Amino acid sequence: MARAEKVATVAELTERFQSSSGAVLAEYRGLSVAQLADLRHALGEQATFSVVKNTLTKLAAAEAGIAAELDGLLVGPSAIAFVKGDVVEAAKGLRNFARDNPALVIKGGVIDGQPMSPSEIARLAELESREVLLAMLAGAMKASGENAAATLAALPVQMARLAGALHAQRDAAGTGQTPTETPNDEAVADTAAADQDQTEE
């Protein structure tokens, strides 16, 4: 490879490291060209998968400021999945392909500037995708909104009951009765009979 071509390759890799949300390194020894094409298709828009030269990639990683995060990973035949979309979906794609094609071995990587081991990338693949999480969040917000609406709808009824109770309490205070106290029927009859006797006298 000519020097100018090497410089251009390092510059391109550096830009991809810097513009990607993550980079997952893998060993692809034993995979055919057709299988690599299938992997690229499986990743879709979430990531691009490229076979790289270790020496040039080390230079690019150093220029991108992530040499330490990739230390020890750039050995043997190497390829990198540069993640552009959802890192969880990219991790799922790599995991699912590796299940069907054991020749693909995840070596590790860097996600959002943090080094990731193969086991951590596997756990990442178990998470819900961004779309699912957003749908769950929207559902939770909708449920909260419905609860709030029900609470607001109940307020006028509660206020009316409170106003009625206060009114009854004030009336009772004026008559000396408790709000639940009502005149006894026998007392009313006795009072009426006494009034009648006084009238006849």
Intertermini distance: 135 Å
Oligomer: single chain
Counted beta strands: 5
Strand content: 5-15%
- Fraction of residues in helix: 55-70%
The averaged pLDDT comes out at: 78
Compute the number of helices: 7
Poorly predicted sequence stretches spanning 5 or more consecutive residues: 178-201
Look at the helices and sheets and give the structural class.
alpha+beta
Side by side, the strands of the main sheet go 2-3-1-4-5
Rg over alpha carbons: 38 Å
Largest sheet: 5 strands, antiparallel
Structural summary, described in words:
The protein is of the alpha+beta class and 201 residues long. The chain is 61% helix and 14% strand. The protein has 7 helices and 5 strands. It has a 5-stranded antiparallel β-sheet with strand order 2-3-1-4-5. Strand 4 and strand 5 form a beta hairpin. The protein starts with a helix and ends with a helix. Mean pLDDT is 78; it is low at 178-201.
Short summary:
With 201 residues, the protein is an alpha+beta fold. The protein has helices at 3-19, 33-43, 54-64, 87-100, 118-125, 130-175, 185-200; strands at 22-27, 47-52, 78-83, 105-111, 114-116.
Key traits:
201 residues, alpha+beta, five-stranded antiparallel beta sheet, 7 helices, 61% helix, 14% strand, elongated, disordered C terminus
Helix-strand blueprint:
Elements: H1 3-19, E1 22-27, H2 33-43, E2 47-52, H3 54-64, E3 78-83, H4 87-100, E4 105-111, E5 114-116, H5 118-125, H6 130-175, H7 185-200
Antiparallel strand pairs: 1-3, 1-4, 2-3, 4-5
